[in-house]
Each structure stands twice: as structure tokens, then as C-alpha cells.
Specification:
2 domains; elongated; single chain; 6-stranded mixed sheet; alpha/beta; about 10% strand; about 55% helix; Rossmann fold
Length: about 425
Amino acid sequence: MPSPLRRPYGRILFALTGALLLGACAPSFLPGGVPAPREIPALESRLVEQPGDRDNRIRLGAAYVEAQRPEEALRVLQPVTGDGPELVALLVSGGALEALGRFDEARAAYERVLRLADPGQVELRRVAGDRIPLVRRRQLEVDVRAAVAREAELVQRTPADDAVAVFPFIYEGADPQYAPLGRALSEMVVTDLATIDRVRVLERARIQFLLDELQLSESGRVDPATAVRGGRLLGAGQVIQGRVGGGEDDIRVLAGIVPARVGAGVSAVEDSDRLQSFFDLQKRLVLAFFEGLRVQLTPAERERVLQRPTESLQAILLFGRGLEAEDRGDFREAARLFGQAFQVDPGFDEADRRAGDAERLGNQAAVTPRGFTGIAMTQIPTAPGVPQSVDQIRIMLAEIDALIPGPELRDPGPELLGTEGVGLGPALLEILLRWP
């Protein structure tokens, strides 16, 4: 399910980007602000006359992106070189590559910006860095769909045994308020397994995309045959699945390590305890999984694995609810729940980190490639004497209705642009009032 942030916030962001380009509080920007598609003929003529004008190339590339012509954007941006302009061209190219669904290449462009940008170019680095997790997530989704399309080929391969996929544990207990323990437990297992470099744990997002793509029901995911199929599609030699049951005061877990090799036996793990001893149970389970995977831990590794992220059952329940929200693409809700988990236990650093990650994902999911191009263009200085009136009129008339969101929406513009505490509304109002 796509994030509910995506559609309305993309429009709001684009209008806010325009307001920033014109507001007195904004830094200097590319000549003319955000280029409109109707400017393309003039920009193309200038390109013929002055092919070495890097700023014009970037403006033309951005105009092509806005006109939904990303291939042409890449063509005109490719020759741009030079420290500052090259980095901005890379950012705009990233937006074009995203529009084409070439997310790996977009990520490479943003990562190159991070490598080449000076430490003092804080905003440039932030814009590129915040975009990387989203395009990586979208590439995972593309990869999973491609794997499902190639299923007949992939099921003939035997994945490497060191690659492990942990599917979300299914809650079958009597009290639905404890249902988030299923996802929380599986995520804690993932975290503990990943502390040992001899185990290669697959990303949870990749697994969730596969479950969504195959439309597997809650009851169908624990089937060993399903695990073999899923493991081969994911490239995982071992799949860990489980069920969580219990009543108001107790918890029971039945789990298994299912090899992706046809005919191999399942290593079953079963344990139970009082609900208040959930964290003891979780550590016993993960040690049993290491044993089932035939991974011998050194004393130092064992001590590291046994460290607990929190001792609060309330915090881990909120954390599990955050994982559920994240898996359905509701990053705003996930950030809120992770944040609540951290408030319950200020020592729960993982919850705090995940809250920040989810918030950034939600913010970036709200930005279309066109909107991102507008942000990227704020990173290049304005050439003196270039008129901006055409852009001003376009920005004033376009997407203004999106600046009046419903009461259920909060304004992500300042968060996306790193300008919290700066009021954009008065700046835009001033522009409107001065319009002849």
C-alpha cells in the first residue's frame, strides 16, 4: 500500500519550492527559479548558441524533467562538469533517473554527490543523502517484481546457505493488543542475527515486498513449501518463520528454520514463558536459531547478542506497531509510533533511530521527481540580471490550492527543505499581494 503522504504532499512541496525560490529568506538560486516546460524552446535555442553555458543546461534539464521528458534531461545534463554545477546536474539527473524507474542509477548519482561535495556543503549533502533510502527501497520493490517474473528460472537455483530471510512472525494469541509482538519479535531476531558477520540477513523491506507481491495470506506464510519458494525468490538459503500464541499472561512461540533446498529437513524451535519474560524468551530463541544455522558464537559475540534494546514491554509493543505501519507504507504513522516507543523508554535508541528514518522516508515519499528537481536547483547561485517574472507568475498561479491542506494533513515543506521555523506563508502572501 502506498504511503498516504505521497499524492497531496508532492503538490504542496512543489508550490512551496516555488515560494522558497522567491522568498526573501531563501538563499540564492538558479537563474529564473523553477523552469516551466514552455521555456524549453528558448532554453534549447540558447543551448545551440552557447553549448558551454552550464547553468542553461541545468535549467533545460530541469524543464525536461518537469515536462516528463527525462531521457532528454539526461542527454543535456551529461556534459555538465565543474565542482558546483556538476553536483547540481547530478541531483537533477537523479530526479530524471527516478522518473524512468532506474532507481539504482539514481542512488549512484546521489551517492556521488555525497562523495564529491565538500563537508561545508551541508544542504547539498542533506538533499542527496535524504533521497538515498527511498530510491533504495523502490529498487528493492523493482527487484522483487523482477524475481517473481523469473520464478521459473530462480526456483532451479540453490541459494547460498549464509543468506537468511526472517519472515514476520504471525500472532495467534488470545489478546489482539499483543499482536504487534509478532513483528517485533521477528525484527529483534533480524537485529541479533545481523550482529554476526558470518550470517547475511536479508532486508525486511525486501521480504515484505515479496509477501505483498505474492499476496500471501497470514496463514499461508508459515507453510514450509512457501518458505522454500520464498527463499529461492529472495536468494536466501535459510528461511526463519514462526507463530506466536498465548493468553493474557503467557507467550508461546513455535518457529522453524526452513532450508531452501528441496527435501531438506526443518529445524524446529519451540519455547514459552510468562509474558513479562518476553525478552528472556526472545534471547533464547535467537541463540537456538544460531545453533540451527550452525553458527558457533564466541564469548564476545554471545555477549553482544544478549544485549537488550529495551526492557519495556510497552515500548516493544509500540515498536511492533511502528513496524506494521512501515510495512504498509504509512511512514508518518510509523515515525509517530517509533517516537512514542522512545518516549516510553529513552534508552531505546533503536526506536529513536527508526523514528528519524521513517520520518525522512515519509518526507521523501511525498516528493515527486519534478518536486525534487525544484529542490535540487536551489543549490546553484543566481546569475545577475536574469529576469524571473515568468517563473513568478507561473508559481503564483500553479498549485495554489495545494497550499490549503485539509485538517488531517500537516505541512512537510519546512521539514523537507530543512527550514523549520521559517514561515513560508507570509512570503507567498507578499508575492501574491504585489502581483500587478
